[in-house]
Amino acid sequence: MISDQVYNVLTTGVGHIGCASSSLKPFHADALGVCCDQATSSIVCCVNKETNKPFVNTLEIGSRVSLFVGVISHEAYNLKGDVTELRDVYDDERQACDDLRKQMYSLYGELGIPENLAEKYWLKPANLAVVFSVDKVFVQTPGPDAGKQI
Fold first, then answer.
1. Which bin fits 11, alpha (ψ -120 to 50), beta or left (φ > 0)?
2. How far apart are CA 104 and CA 106, in angstroms?
């Protein structure tokens, strides 16, 4: 279900994961890194618990989540599914977050944004892994296919 093209954006792009409360109030968290198992269509979205308390407090096993992820070319996807696990971030996932952070610092530097400003967003510990099973993928890239399920 998760193509190589979607996988590339998942693992190199900027993302936000969202859920809704029982009263349908939306909450979201900044993704500090995303790991993906294409064979099982499973996603691990790494977030910081402290800066995303309303999201974390709403989330539970079985919650529906929606992960938006995009890259600077405007290519973007939305992946939806059910939370299967909430746990600490593993070392390899933490390394993926560190690698993404370094890539973002480089990109921001090319845009003239100094690292100390980029750190306000990116220099947070990834300390919660939100694991979910993907059952729907949508194109979010602007254009005629925007919103189309793939």
1. alpha
2. 5
Count CB-CB contacts under 10 A for residue 119: 13
For the sheet with 42-47, list strands across it: 26-31, 14-20, 64-70, 76-87, 128-139, 42-47, 33-37
Helix locations, 33-90, DSSP H: 53-58
**Which parts of the chain sit beneath pLDDT 70?**
none
Amino acid at residue number 61: I
Residue ranges of domains in the chain, CATH in brackets: 4-95+125-139 (2.30.110.10)
Centroid of chain to Cα 110: 23
For 104-138, the pLDDT digits (tens) are 999 889 989 998 888 888 889 999 999 999 999 99
Q: What percent of the chain clears pLDDT 70, i.e. is strictly above it? A: 100
Rounded Cα gap, residues 67 and 81, in angstroms: 9
Whole-prediction pTM value?
Answer: 0.93
* Number of other CB atoms surrounding residue 9 within 10 Å: 21
Neighbour-count burial for 67-101, b at 16+ CB within 10 Å, e otherwise: bbbbbeeebbbbbbbebeeeeebeeebbebbeebb
